[in-house]
Amino acid sequence: MPELPEVETVRLGLQRLLPGRVVASVDVPGTAKSFPNAPEDVRQFLLGAQVAGVRRRAKVLLIDLSTQYTLVTHLKMTGQLVFRSDRERFGAGHPSESLVGELPDRSTRVVLAFQDGSHLYFNDQRRFGWMRLMPTSEVPNIDFMRKVGPEPLEADFTWQVLRDQLKRRANTSIKAAILDQTVVAGVGNIYADESLWGAKIHPKTLVKRLTDANIKRLHTALVDVLTLSIAKGGSTDHTYVDAEGRKGSYLAFAKVFRREGQPCPRHPDTLIEKIRVAGRGTHICPKCQRPK
DNA sequence: CACTTGACCTGTCCGC
DNA sequence: TGCGGACAGGTCAAGT
């Protein structure tokens, strides 16, 4: 599921591929739920617009256009943004690293065609994701943007910032707290489990029971795990691919996520367990992550 | 206000 | 082989 590293990987690809291209047409197969804008707005602010750049905030992708409008996209669980040049029918790279065949397919929600014959496909098997067009100046005012917490890979995200952000969630579990996008931006289930293992903290630990030393370790682990995952192109379990349809390889480096029954890298005699925390499947080493 | 749970979806896997 | 049900998880609305 696209979390910060996956969305950032898509952004890096799109930032390389899209700027300068001019939108020629938009097709929304099926229902308009995935792309709810009125046709007249699409005509006025999207058709003929040139892509200026691609940004990311938390798990949200922002494709800025020359019309001072922005295509805002949330991939949620199974969303993909896949670019194809006019020559490619099956995508770049070796077929074995692509999860995506000929496009559009039945998961395709929105197709953007550019004047040079290339296309951007927004696919979303489970239809939780969305894409919408809005004035660039309005983006910071949408509810999510107003409430979302600090970017964990920005230089000003210190352990003290994390500590202060956590104060509001003193009586909840640390896992629920770091999944809360208003506490810290971009962390989802994979990197919550990975960073809590890295920090040797049990995910059910109440935030108010954490020491400064715990929070420092969690801060370091979060930054390290997110940075490593971006370097590996993110995590692919089922559907995630980058802007060119390629899988990410982070899960080959994961310590606990989806590794129940396998030995803990720190304690080969102890097997990783899967439990339920904050309503989510949660992976821990029972030896290095003791309940507090 | 803090916190938890259910809804939104569809594909996959498991047990019968 | 078919089928019901559990499960996957990002976010928001509704509930306690």
Could you explain how this protein is built, in words?
Helix 1 runs parallel beside helix 7, helix 4 packs across helix 7 and helix 6 crosses helix 7. With 292 residues, this protein is an alpha+beta fold. It has a four-stranded antiparallel sheet, covered by helices on one side. The protein contains seven helices and ten strands. It binds a DNA duplex (16 and 16 nucleotides) through loops.
Topology record:
Elements: H1 4-17, E1 23-27, H2 39-45, E2 51-57, E3 60-65, E4 69-74, E5 79-84, E6 108-114, E7 119-124, E8 130-135, H3 143-147, H4 159-166, H5 174-179, H6 189-198, H7 212-231, E9 273-277, E10 280-284
Antiparallel strand pairs: 1-6, 2-3, 3-4, 4-8, 5-7, 6-7, 9-10
Helix pairs in contact: 1-7, 4-7, 6-7
The protein binds a DNA duplex (16 and 16 nucleotides) through loops.
The arrangement of helices and strands along the chain is HEHEEEEEEEHHHHHEE
Major β-sheet profile: 4 strands, antiparallel
Number of helices: 7
- Bin the helical content: 10-25%
> Any idea what the radius of gyration is?
20 Å
Walk across the major sheet and give the strand order.
1-6-7-5
The separation of the N and C termini measures: 30 Å
Overall shape: globular
Content-based structural category: alpha+beta
Round the mean pLDDT to the nearest integer and report it: 91
Instruction: Give the tally of β-strands.
Output: 10
The unreliable regions are none
- Indicate the proportion of strand residues: 15-25%
